[in-house]
Amino acid sequence: MAWSFVGLHVWLAWFAGAFVARAASSAPQIPSTANFIPGQGSFELLPDVQIIVDSAHALEGSPSALAFAQTFREDLLSVAHYAWVPPVTVLPVGVGIPGIPVIHITIDATLGHTLYNGQPTLEGYDFEVAPYTYSIKAAAPIGAWWGMVTLLQQVASSVASGAKSITIPAGVGTDSPGWEVRGFMLDAGRHWFDTGFLSELCIYASFFKLNEFHLHASDNLWNPDYLYNGGDAWKELYAAFRFQPPVGSPIAGLVPRLNESWPQTDFAAFQETCANHGVTVIPEIDTPGHSLAITQWKPELMLSGQPDLLNLSYPDTIPTIQSIWHEFLPWFSSPEVSIGADEYDAALGDAYVGFVNEMAAFVQAEAGKRIRIWGTDEPSNQTISTDVTIQHWDFPDADIPVRLLEAGYQVINSEQAFLYLDGKYSDGGVYPYSLNLDLMFAGAPDGGGWAPNIFSATDESNNTRADAPGLRGAIMALWNDWGNNATTMLEDYYQLAQSLAVVGEKTWAGSGVRETELTRAQFESVYPVMNAAAPGQNLNRAVQAEHGDVVYSYPAPWTTLFTPYASMGPPYTLKFSVKPSSVAPDTGFLFAGEDSKLYIANLTFEATGQLFPLGYVLPTDVYTSVEIHATTQYTYAVINGDEDNLRYWTTDMDIWAEYMERANMSFAAPAQQIGGNGFAGSIRDVLLTVG
Hints:
- Residues 1-23 form the signal peptide.
- Its EC number is 3.2.1.52.
- InterPro entries: Beta_hexosaminidase_sua/sub, GH, GH20_Enzymes, Glyco_hydro_20_cat, Hex-like_dom2.
- Belongs to the glycosyl hydrolase 20 family.
- It comes from Rhodofomes roseus.
- By secondary structure, the protein is α/β, with parallel strands linked by helices.
- The protein has three domains: 8-175, Chitobiase/beta-hexosaminidase domain 2-like (Chitobiase, domain 2, 2-Layer Sandwich); 182-512, Glycosidases (TIM Barrel), CATH 3.20.20.80; 550-690, Jelly Rolls (Sandwich), CATH 2.60.120.
- The chain has 14 helices and 36 strands.
- It has an eight-stranded parallel β-barrel with strand order 10-11-14-17-18-19-20-22. Strands 1-9-7-8-4-2-3 form a seven-stranded mixed sheet. A six-stranded antiparallel sheet has the order 23-36-25-30-31-32, with no helix packed on it.
- Strand 2 (50-54), helix 2 and strand 3 (89-91) form a beta-alpha-beta unit.
- Helix 4 packs parallel to helix 13.
- Residues 1-26 have low confidence and may be disordered.
């Protein structure tokens, strides 16, 4: 694998600190820091720590250094397990109270950090750790934020070590990302996700220094029997557009299921949450392919015989697409948006290229934003503007990254061989459940690990240098080809959790450039600590057991009872005995929580708006003993102690109308309410435990 250091001073710093950095990294971080030279002593974090932002530039930028510091303070409470620390203060540099630990945050525009390609970046930071003082300096607030994340991870490592106090080794370090774009994509067009969940994902990803959330917000299931049989079945195939037009909008008909769309206020709050954690949301409205949601609204726009493709020669097609963007561009705070533009009819290459260029000009004129497209093979006598970033994903297409870079394009690596996942099931086993660590840590032709400059594990000629001009970075993708019933929202998180961490390491540090990069063993050792410590969200739905492994125990009979716990993630065991009355309505539930409900009828779980019946009918007027066991991979019931007849909750996924695939479901425990919604009868001997 080819690479080069960027700048002699950076090389000297790496060389001077490389051997001591690894020696001092008994507690590695994700992503690894570029350079750290140990000093004498350590910084001890105490609950009375002062967090001081230099007054000279504290309020500049959006978010400002002060805003990031206030987010950091809240996160520090979580990671350090402190009940309280003093509020953030704004003071001149160097001010503090002797003998009390101080975290200094300073913005200094003269600091210069660079990406591997030599381009300046505002995301770098310097840090100095001394007894009583931890200083973070950066050229911009975003760099200071990543320095604060480094400190949070250091605190998490110290807490996990079991030491009596939280200490961080003294020394000086400097750190910056190798690439500008470090992100992940979630297919929200074929699976519904509310903005609360999306916000939690943003916060979690930020803890691993990912800075982009690519949100694929329109799409349809791909089912040839529905799409191409010549009939009207395509009108019934699931398709969705997630941005909710305001009442009275001329495009209101584009979103028939308002309960599966985001109002502007919700989406704005989601973007703000992401921004406050250093993450930019890149929205995608996919056209001219993957456009069934649009043609179900306006059938006259579809390409004959291919209802999921738009007819670009029809006079009203491009004006309609532009009217959609006109409605929603003011919503988006990002400097770029994606128009998708993949998998169109290759025979219509000229129309396709003309469409991409026209949309690039339109979005720039309308909102001052640039566009991205997925790489695709649309042979044409025309060329796509080099102002358009190409997101490579598939080699059979003509967008060979090396050629694109040579032609002056900017490229983002989303190569499916390394970076694609599919919600729970991958047709033919093409994609793994989570990113393959064998590939990520040894997937280059020379046996080195994957990085954004690696597009092929077998053909080195398809790979670039780490410092290649125009190589912007990488985005991993989680698709949801099988729709809403294939996974719950939390199951999508389970697939993403470790994958986001490894992409954070590889897009920040790369492979074969820095001596401080994590080995696979180091990554696997530290990841569970960082996953458990990640603040600002609770996607693991972790709860604190009251006694040992017991979360709660309610032995007395109940018809309705509220508990202190909204939801509990797996692994867990929920035991109870239930005696439904003969008049109990099917609408009654046994348990309900933030993420799921368990209805009495057929012991049906509800999650993410979908129903998953176990198919077991509870007898009335007699107690039945039920044990529910769950991991992130499955949920099953033991009825009346019959261990030889485990009953699993499953889902049936239609794989492109070719066959059905059955898969297990994992549900968070519906821990908040026992009995409700008209339940008649009694529930007793309720016991919820960890594991």
